[in-house]
Design brief:
36% helix; 4 helices; alpha+beta
Length: 159
């Protein structure tokens, strides 16, 4: 719309800007409001965009890691589930590794983790060992490694 107001460029037929803005007041206040709305919209996209691009980059690099045939690391032991008040569980801690179910989880989301939590047993988890960082889990108070993508999990009942 600013192209039409400032330079008189009307993108007709795909966008008939002239007819879109004919009802808008052509005052300085209207121009300032339009510029402010544009800047707020761009600010919103600038804030949201990097978060989505980071997730996309992370998933793409994990898929490329798998496709390249490089080996997966694994950890096994008793699992500790990290409960969440809204959606059941936030994550799984196995050994010294923490897997966030929102970002590090590639498995089927229909798994009933409540049954696994009550049944006990042990888990063996295969993960991509790149990008590991230390994190102090506030629930258990332990320093664990996180930011590794969980690719496959296997559960064994108590013997």
């Amino acid at each position: 719309m600013l192209l039409y107001v400032i330079f008189g460029i009307n993108l007709y037929p795909p966008l008939d800007i002239k007819s879109m803005i004919k009802d808008l007041p052509s005052s300085t206040r209207g121009m300032i409001e339009g510029i402010i709305a544009t800047l707020l919209g761009l600010g919103l996209f600038a804030y949201i965009g990097p978060h989505n691009l980071i997730r996309f980059k992370r998933r793409l690099s994990a898929r490329l890691y798998i496709l390249s045939g490089r080996p997966l690391a694994s950890v096994e032991g008793k699992q500790t589930f990290d409960p969440d008040s809204e959606c059941g569980y936030n994550g799984i801690e196995v050994g010294e590794y923490y897997f966030d179910l929102n970002t590090d989880f590639w498995l089927d989301r229909d798994i009933d983790l409540g049954k696994l939590d009550n049944a006990g047993g042990e888990m063996r988890i295969w993960y991509i060992p790149t990008g590991l960082r230390d994190y102090k889990n506030s629930r258990t108070g332990r320093v664990v490694k996180h930011n590794c993508v969980l690719v496959r999990a296997e559960w064994r009942p108590r013997v």
